[in-house]
């Protein structure tokens, strides 16, 4: 199994917040890619690498970044021998390839023919999430159907459905459809889906088909990884693994909330994500 971290974003919202923060308290974070931000006592992405290494659930971790942050990621990766850094060649937000195209780039560049864990580079979870339990559930599904995939979901509030992709699932926790940012009245579900997926190796060829279908559309159709998931649900079995919540470091308030949780509320740092 491989892991691919999507880390080629430019963090424009967060950097704008930092620049306009009146007290200048977070000035030291200027110009730092979101996955390399300090969260608690280690870099955000290092939380993932520590857990991926200790659980031995993957043999390779590919981090897809851009030309602007490539050198910083290479320096960070020096302490992790299983990590490969891939530069998507872009230098500004307007040039971005999109998350799905970056995922395909990693698969093609390294000739990946294996199950892959896809991790949003700005995402962490609450303490109940376990990589070991998650991959064990995927193995159970694979024994029944080699085309099956597994994603996460957590319960969001009524007024948050407009922010997220919302999954509707059946009694077996198989996803029936995904609604992108629906109004609360448009679905009874409150199952939000973060960017953390475990795709079967048989799913990987479908990346080409999706991108071919979307090649003439706006970049937004290739940028949100949830768009591929929504498309995939109609073609492959996708199941849900439930968790209590996540942190999405998209702006300064969400960064502060996440950092505070890891400094003050994390009960067992040694077992986090494992």
Question: In words, what does this structure look like?
Answer:
The mean pLDDT is about 95. The longest helix is centred in the middle third of the chain and has 14 residues, at about 130-145. The chain has helices at about 10-20, 45-55, 70-75, 100-110, 130-145, 205-215, 220-225, 225-235, 250-265; strands at about 1-5, 40, 40-45, 60-65, 85, 115-120, 125, 150-155, 165-170, 175-180, 190, 195-200, 240, 245-250. By secondary structure, the protein is of the alpha/beta class. The protein is built from nine helices and 14 strands. Strands 1, 4, 5, 6, 8, 9, 10, 11, 12 and 13 form a ten-stranded mixed beta sheet that branches. The chain has a two-stranded antiparallel sheet with strand order 2-3. A two-stranded antiparallel ribbon has the order 7-14. The chain is about 30% helix and about 20% strand.
What attributes does this structure have?
274 residues; alpha/beta; ten-stranded mixed sheet; two-stranded antiparallel sheet; 14 strands; 32% helix; 22% strand; globular
């Amino acid at each position: 199994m491989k892991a691919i971290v999507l880390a080629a974003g430019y963090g424009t919202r967060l950097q704008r917040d930092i620049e306009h923060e009146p007290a200048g308290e977070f000035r030291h974070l200027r110009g730092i890619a979101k996955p390399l931000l300090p969260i608690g006592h280690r870099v955000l992405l290092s939380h993932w690498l520590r857990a991926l290494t200790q659980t031995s659930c993957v043999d390779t971790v590919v981090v897809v970044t851009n030309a602007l942050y490539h050198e910083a990621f290479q320096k960070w990766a020096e302490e992790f021998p299983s990590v490969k850094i891939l530069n998507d060649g872009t230098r500004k937000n307007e040039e971005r390839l999109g998350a799905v195209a970056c995922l395909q780039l990693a698969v093609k560049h390294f000739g990946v023919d294996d199950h892959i864990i896809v991790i949003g580079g700005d995402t962490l979870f609450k303490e109940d999430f376990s990589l070991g339990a998650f991959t064990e559930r995927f193995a159970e599904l694979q024994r029944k159907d080699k085309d099956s995939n597994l994603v996460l979901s957590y319960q969001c509030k009524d007024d948050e459905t407009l922010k997220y992709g919302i999954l509707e699932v059946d009694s077996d926790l198989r996803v029936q459809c995904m609604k992108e940012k629906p109004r609360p009245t448009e679905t009874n579900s409150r199952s939000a889906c973060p960017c953390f997926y475990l795709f079967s190796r048989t799913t990987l060829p479908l990346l080409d088909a999706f991108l071919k279908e979307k090649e003439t559309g706006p970049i937004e159709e290739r940028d949100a990884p949830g768009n591929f998931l929504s498309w995939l649900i109609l073609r492959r079995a996708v199941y849900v693994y439930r968790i209590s919540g996540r942190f999405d470091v998209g702006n300064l308030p969400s960064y502060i909330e996440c950092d505070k949780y890891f400094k003050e509320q994390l009960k067992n740092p040694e077992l986090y994500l494992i």
